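Supplementary Methods. Inverse-folding protocol.

Structures were first reduced to a discrete structure-token string of length 97. This string, shown here, constituted the complete conditioning input.
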């Protein structure tokens, strides 16, 4: 399926990106491939197949509480901590007033 320019502009607005040139054409082709693949999947006959993994029975372990490490024990291994919390370098820069 080929995407129209209007559809591509709408996707750009939703993603809050602005593409141009080669990037735009490459994305347009990739999205067309993805949509084509999904359309192909929709055509697969799934009659007679259970729709839910839960219906087949859960193969996961029971969610039961177990003992965990003590806070002080974990913080003792941290490179830096303060008042019972991990202390990490700032990731977002802010301007000081």
């Amino acid at each position: 399926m080929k995407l129209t320019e209007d559809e591509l502009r709408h996707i750009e607005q939703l993603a809050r990106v602005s593409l141009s040139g080669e990037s735009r054409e490459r994305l347009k082709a990739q999205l067309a491939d993805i949509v084509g693949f999904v359309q192909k999947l929709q055509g697969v006959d799934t009659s007679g197949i259970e729709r839910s993994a839960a219906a087949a029975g859960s193969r996961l372990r029971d969610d039961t509480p177990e003992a965990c490490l003590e806070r002080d024990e974990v913080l003792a291994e941290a490179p830096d901590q303060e008042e019972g919390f991990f202390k990490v370098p700032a990731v977002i820069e802010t301007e000081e007033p």
